[in-house]
Amino acid sequence: MADEVVKVINLKKVYKQKLKKIIKAVDGISFSIKRGEILGFLGPNGAGKSTTIKIMIGLIRATEGKVFINGVEVPAPESRKKIGFLPEHPSFIDTLKGKELLIFSALIHKIDKAKIKEKVCSLLALFDLEDAAERELRKYSKGMLQKIGFASAIIHEPDLLILDEPMSGLDPIARYQFKKIFKELKERGKTIFFSSHIIPDVEDLCDRVVIINKGKIIQILNKEDMKDLEEVFIKVVQHR
Hints:
Helix content: 25-40%
Strand order of the largest sheet: 6-7-8-3-9-10
CATH architecture of the domain at 1-82 and 159-169 and 193-240: 3-Layer(aba) Sandwich
């Protein structure tokens, strides 16, 4: 459908370990992400969230199933052209300074050189990183790395954001800032898919939520069905 930015079809990822033991990290999941919505991916640690995201952006290959982004099948490079990605544990060249990372990201995405300085300064201000712009990333805290990683993910103004536990390690003020930015991006027509195990974040931000546990989708809820999300989440997770 035209309003579907992402379509995940019967996705499976199996890992084989010693003694022929098989781990089903993702076990036949299907869902879609509509254009302009914020979709939450909620599940406990080890539920299969990060594995699914890595398949979606082409970092690892699925055992079975397919993923389409804007109609292009992953892992074709064309599928990633309009994506902004933030991993759960951002890792950068730690001798780079914050400002240098954003300039580097802008150049990778072929942003007009005349606009780079303005974009970088704007993002540093947006994430309250102006005082840390000339500081090496190895001296950044966990929360600051999340901020600079998020800034790097949106510098090219992607249509789709895929974020893995984006608010991990943030203090309450930074969490508020991230949520505000999420809502502003949605108002600008951006599509956001983010994984989390923090229920209040999902309740506050999401139009829909996909609940996953042990590699399987348990439920997909609309906004009106999220009133008792914590109770629903605990119930479905405990009974599997």
